[in-house]
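Dear support,

I submitted the protein below through the web form. The confirmation email said the job was done, but the results page showed an empty box. After a refresh the structure appeared. I'm attaching both so you can tell me whether what I see now is the final result or a partial one.
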Amino acid sequence: MSALALRMNRFLKERRLKWYDIPLWAFGMFIALIWFAPFLWMVITSFKPLSEIMTTDVEWVPRNFIIQNYVTVFEQPVIRWMINSFIVAVGTTAVAVLLGALAGYALARLHFPGRGVVFGLLLASIMIPGEMAIVPLYIAFLKARLTDSYLAIGLPFIANVFSVYIFRQFFLTLPKELEEAASIDGASRFGIFIRVALPLARSPPWPPPSSCSPPIGMPSSGRFSIIFDENMKTMPVGMIAFAPVVGSQVQLVGFGPAMAGVTLLTLPSLLVFLLLQRYFIEGVSRTGLKG
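What the results page shows now:
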């Protein structure tokens, strides 16, 4: 057997694959490359001058490598937008995870009339498009005089159904014997939640906080319906200024700065997902273990 065949056998054994898995693996890699190609094209285009962008020729390597597009983007208060996005994403996620843990534990462990109905209504609310709430939220925050504030951006996201669902499914998998032992030692229901259930929710292999944090934090940093102050914008909202086409209007900022802005906007979310992808995928894959 050749050296290449030996290496291939070792590679397959280490990953517990069979020879007939290779076509499926190759097809998956092909799909991944198709998915990655637009992202790579966006990054490459962000370093091109306009003369190389507005052409019919497909050039994956810029002939003239420039950073002027990024200089144009950073002429705006991008750093401030990044800070706003970080504050909103972290604050909203922390509160939403805590409330989701409380609600999920109640739905998993407390027996009260209508528990199933409440959980069903929560799941049904996912089917309601978020756009339907924009106008009511806009009016409510105007009347409450909370516009141009972090509260106006984060409050609509702290009651997150996805977080409740993830925590409920996790708490259903916890052995009841642990809680019964704590109860015998005199712990109250809230004490059991704080000292037993919540610490276990932070431990591997399936920590729900890591599973539901990206879906909460990423959308929350993009809320803009009640923000008017330029310095209070978040990254997704601020980058709209660099969109080459808005509605039927064509702006003069150009496609280069637009690609640079979108690249800066994409990188934080991509990094967060890469760091937490194992927990996120495991959390989502286990949500159906118990009903």
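Response: this is the final, complete result; the empty box was a page-load delay. The two ends are 51 Å apart (CA to CA).
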